[in-house]
């Protein structure tokens, strides 16, 4: 019997158990990064909160899944440890909404779009093709990745789940 494995904020999880699914709930400005190796049938999901770890002080502890530039390498490492090959990985992302409105329109406050851009850049640096994305807007989402099939499903707040892409 497989599990529905929740991936909380700043977490990175992976599975090769066919009955499992990985889910990041309540993605507002955060990004759910799904990677999948269809040959090895290994799936991984990171729940990215912020774009760049350069903002932290040297004394701060880096939580591997918190930043796009640390989460993607950690995600790759996690799925490779279960038998995935980087050359076979493919990705889909969801989230990155602007869930709060501000009196000013400073780009620094557009965390959702900055997160999406940073994740896309990190995937490119890792050599992983991004095959689908559902990012932006003003409502939160939940993303689920099915281990057996690589199906990425997205549900916006108040909506029904929609198949985004089958990575497998």
Plain-language structure description:
The chain is an alpha+beta fold and 168 residues long. The protein has one domain: 2-Layer Sandwich (60s Ribosomal Protein L30, Chain: A), CATH 3.30.1330. 17% of the residues lie in helices and 34% in strands. The protein contains two helices and ten strands, in the order βββββαβαββββ. It has helices at 68-80, 111-126; strands spanning 4-6, 12-15, 21-27, 31-37, 42-48, 90-95, 130-135, 141-146, 151-156, 162-166. The strands form two sheets. A five-stranded mixed β-sheet has the order 1-3-8-9-10, with no helix packed on it. A hairpin with a 5-residue loop joins strand 9 and strand 10. Helix 1 (68-80) crosses helix 2 (111-126). The model has no long low-confidence stretch (mean pLDDT 92).
């Amino acid at each position: 019997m497989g599990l529905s494995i929740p991936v909380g904020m700043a977490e990175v999880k992976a599975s090769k158990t066919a009955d499992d699914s990985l889910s990041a709930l309540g993605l507002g400005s955060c990004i759910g990064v799904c990677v999948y190796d269809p040959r090895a049938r290994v799936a991984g999901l990171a729940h990215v909160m912020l774009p760049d770890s350069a903002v932290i002080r040297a004394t701060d502890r880096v939580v591997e899944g918190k930043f796009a530039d640390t989460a993607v390498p950690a995600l790759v490492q996690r799925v490779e440890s279960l038998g995935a090959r980087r050359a076979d990985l493919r990705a889909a992302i969801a989230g990155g909404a602007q869930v709060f409105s501000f009196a000013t329109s400073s780009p620094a406050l557009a965390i959702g779009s900055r997160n999406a851009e940073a994740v896309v850049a990190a995937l490119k640096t890792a050599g992983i093709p991004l095959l689908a994305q559902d990012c932006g807007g003003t409502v939160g989402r939940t993303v689920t990745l099915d281990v057996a099939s690589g199906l990425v499903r997205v549900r916006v707040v108040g909506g029904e789940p929609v198949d985004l892409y089958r990575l497998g």
